[in-house]
């Protein structure tokens, strides 16, 4: 292993290992990270310590004159002054310089060579290096030789806490982004997902500046053409399930950009939920968690190192990170043409949104900014009825600009490339959760297949009187009686009351963003 000078980053550790192969990172992890081991499938099992998920309230963006007017300040982007950032940066570097071994991983964010970003990760744990080896796009040996200076540097000193007395700190955890220095400093959390989402947040600022839409979505392509589709949806809506389609090629499962050339995946791998994972339910993901992959915070038996994916004793947020080429039907390079279809997924536990609707560009902006789904009753103590959840642009925690910026970009690209936009409800029908029935997955798949085939381009629709949606009333393979939700409720008055209640929740939520959107988008919401 050759050493690598990082003087430009103020790193002076003698043993610095750059871009080690996965097998070598396995050796480093087993030798130098207590508790790290290998699953019977060959995946590296690692633990992130106290933090087993992201810490969004500890995310900070440096307030700087050059970007201050661009950033959507508030509960997503908490401001940090430059002096406090430099204190945290020096604290992180000092910690890294006390380590006996450091790891550097160089890679790219963005599969389109015209828009890719060079990312350098400096960390003290082999597990973190392997994780980012999987999540970034892996350069060739020649590209590494010609790599040059990175566009973004991540100092991962997560094993050392932030000083709570530093101005702007609210805990021992801090994830700080300086848009001007193009640096991220991580303190007080060893959860690997913070690195992944720091890259996405960086892209969410710089891509829209270049008139490129960054998107928190999955994407697929036709098997025999350049035609693509993107699927947006919050957790539990079916985004991962519906993008794992054997009849399509997978572009990516989480983060993409839409440029003038088409779409491209930001990442080189996937970071899939592993809780309750089975080969029968999700064979592609299950089989991808093999040698070279990282299994994070899972429980295994000591005798055979067999992972118990149903054991939540450490966390319910167990994860697996693997290169995208571990998915058999992945399209590599992960680029495709302009989407013919944009699909928004929601799991409406109120049971009032139709299974499938077609949206106008203005409605697309409205529902994109809303980012709606619902929790079901009984998932939390005290929750006795469905709870609406809204996340702007289906990725609120990672936005940098006002949601209206991304929505406007989406609308312009939809119009320019004549894409169709669909809202699919994978939730309840015939009543709310506890009364009605969830829409069968087979029916939802039939709807998505019909979208891809073009059958629905001329399908009959009727306008929903409350939400204004163009409800599709005929889909091959789907019973017509379930397509208009009011018709499925026995108590029509109760449906009307529930629909108006949900419409009010939409309006109340949208009021948070109304100052940053066009009047015609505001008018595209529900009629109360």
Protein architecture, described:
The protein is an alpha/beta fold. The protein contains 13 helices and 31 strands. The strands form 7 sheets. Strands 1-6-7-8-10-9-4-5 form an 8-stranded mixed β-sheet, with helices on both faces. An 8-stranded mixed β-sheet has the order 14-12-13-23-27-24-31-30. A 5-stranded mixed β-sheet has the order 2-3-18-21-17, covered by helices on one side. Helix 1 packs antiparallel against helix 3 and helix 8 packs antiparallel against helix 9. The longest helix has 19 residues. It is globular. The mean pLDDT is 95.
Strand order of the largest sheet: 1-6-7-8-10-9-4-5
Radius of gyration: 23 Å
Largest sheet data? 8 strands, mixed
Report the total helices: 13
- Judging from the principal axes of the Cα atoms, what is the shape? globular
Average pLDDT number: 95
Strand coverage percent: 15-25%
Outline the low-pLDDT stretches. none
N-C termini distance: 66 Å
The residue fraction in helices comes out at 25-40%
Given helix and strand content, the structural type is: alpha/beta
Total strand segments: 31
Give short descriptive properties of this protein:
single chain, alpha/beta, eight-stranded mixed sheet, 13 helices
Protein topology:
Layout: E1 16-18, H1 22-32, E2 37-38, E3 44-46, E4 59-62, E5 78-80, H2 82-96, E6 102-109, E7 117-123, H3 126-135, H4 141-145, E8 152-157, E9 174-178, E10 183-187, H5 193-209, E11 213-216, E12 218-221, E13 228-233, H6 239-243, E14 249-252, E15 255-258, E16 263-265, E17 269-273, H7 283-288, E18 294-296, E19 299-300, E20 307-308, E21 319-323, E22 335-336, E23 339-346, E24 356-359, H8 361-370, E25 372-375, E26 387-390, H9 403-416, E27 420-425, E28 428-429, E29 437-438, H10 441-453, E30 461-463, E31 470-472, H11 485-488, H12 492-510, H13 519-522
């Amino acid at each position: 292993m050759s050493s690598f000078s990082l003087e430009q980053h103020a790193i002076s550790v003698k043993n610095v290992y750059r871009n080690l192969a996965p097998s070598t990172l396995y050796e480093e992890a087993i030798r130098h990270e207590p508790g790290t081991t290998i699953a019977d499938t060959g995946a590296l099992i690692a633990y992130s310590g106290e933090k087993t998920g992201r810490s969004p309230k500890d995310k900070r963006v440096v307030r700087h004159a050059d970007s201050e007017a661009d950033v959507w300040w508030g509960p997503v982007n908490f401001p940090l002054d430059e002096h406090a950032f430099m204190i945290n940066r020096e604290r992180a570097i000092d910690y890294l310089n006390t380590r006996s071994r450091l790891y550097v991983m160089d890679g790219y964010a963005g599969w389109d060579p015209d828009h890719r970003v060079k990312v350098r990760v400096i960390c003290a744990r082999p597990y973190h290096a392997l994780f980012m080896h999987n999540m970034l796009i892996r350069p060739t040996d020649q590209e590494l030789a010609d790599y040059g200076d990175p566009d973004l540097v991540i100092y991962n000193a997560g094993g050392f806490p932030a000083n709570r007395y530093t101005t702007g700190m609210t805990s021992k955890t801090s994830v700080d982004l300086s848009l001007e220095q193009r640096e991220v400093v991580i303190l007080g959390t060893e959860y690997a997902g913070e690195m992944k989402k720091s890259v996405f947040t960086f892209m969410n600022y710089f891509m829209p500046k270049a008139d490129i839409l960054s998107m928190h979505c999955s994407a697929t392509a036709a098997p025999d053409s350049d035609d693509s589709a993107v699927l947006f949806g919050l957790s539990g809506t079916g985004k991962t399930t519906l993008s794992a389609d054997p009849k399509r090629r997978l572009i990516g499962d989480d983060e993409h950009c839409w440029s003038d050339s088409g779409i491209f995946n930001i990442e080189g791998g996937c970071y899939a939920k592993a809780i309750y994972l089975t080969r029968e339910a999700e064979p592609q993901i299950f089989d991808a968690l093999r040698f070279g992959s990282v299994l994070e915070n899972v429980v295994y038996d000591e005798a055979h190192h067999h992972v118990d994916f149903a054991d939540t004793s450490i966390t319910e947020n167990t994860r697996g990170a693997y290169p995208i080429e571990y998915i058999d039907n992945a399209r590599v390079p992960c680029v495709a043409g302009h989407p013919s279809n944009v699909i928004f997924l929601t799991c409406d536990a109120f049971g009032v949104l139709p299974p499938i609707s077609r949206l106008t560009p203005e409605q697309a902006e409205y529902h994109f900014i809303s980012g709606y789904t619902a929790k079901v009753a009984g998932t939390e103590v005290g929750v006795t009825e469905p709870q609406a959840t809204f996340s702007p642009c289906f990725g609120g925690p990672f936005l940098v600009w006002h949601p209206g910026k991304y929505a406007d970009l989406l609308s312009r690209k939809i119009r320019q490339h004549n894409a169709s936009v669909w809202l699919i409800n994978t939730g309840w029908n015939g009543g709310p959760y506890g009364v009605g029935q969830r829409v069968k997955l087979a029916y939802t798949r039939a709807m998505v297949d019909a979208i891809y085939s073009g059958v629905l381009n001329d399908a009959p629709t009727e306008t929903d009187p409350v939400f204004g949606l163009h409800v599709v009333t005929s889909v091959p393979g789907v019973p017509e009686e379930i397509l208009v939700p009011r018709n499925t409720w026995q108590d029509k008055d109760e449906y009307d009351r529930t629909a108006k209640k949900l419409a009010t929740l939409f309006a109340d939520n949208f009021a948070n963003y109304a100052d940053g959107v066009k009047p015609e988008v505001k008018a595209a919401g529900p009629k109360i």
